[in-house]
Write a structure and sequence with these properties.
alpha+beta
Length: 106
């Protein structure tokens, strides 16, 4: 599971109904779970997203046997979902995920 940082202005969007709406917009269909959302699309066999405190926890199961075009579209839609849910672009998320791993003086 990957825990993504969420902008303070987007933390209200961590509810199951808001996550479901973001997943439906990105993937076309989604199912609300007790705490979050479950979806699938293209190379995503299964995506489960739920709030983990002030973070968004996302677990994905990928299908490596899809066409390159399907994989590329899946990545675009996955990034669109994460940007809608967290408020951060792919570049900003990557930077924030690397930040805790950096040591002093980096």
């Amino acid at each position: 599971m990957t825990n993504y940082p969420v902008k303070p202005s987007h933390r209200s969007r961590l509810g199951a109904s808001s996550l479901e709406a973001a997943a439906r917009e990105a993937f076309g269909e989604a199912e609300r779970t007790e705490t979050g959302v479950r979806a699938h699309y293209g190379a995503l066999r299964n995506l489960t997203a739920a709030p983990v405190g002030k973070l968004l926890g996302v677990e994905v199961e990928m299908d490596p046997k899809v066409d390159v075009e399907v994989a590329a579209e899946t990545v675009r839609r996955y990034n669109r979902f994460l940007e809608s849910a967290t408020g951060y672009s792919a570049k900003e998320r990557a930077k924030r995920l690397r930040k805790p791993a950096s040591g002093p003086g980096d």
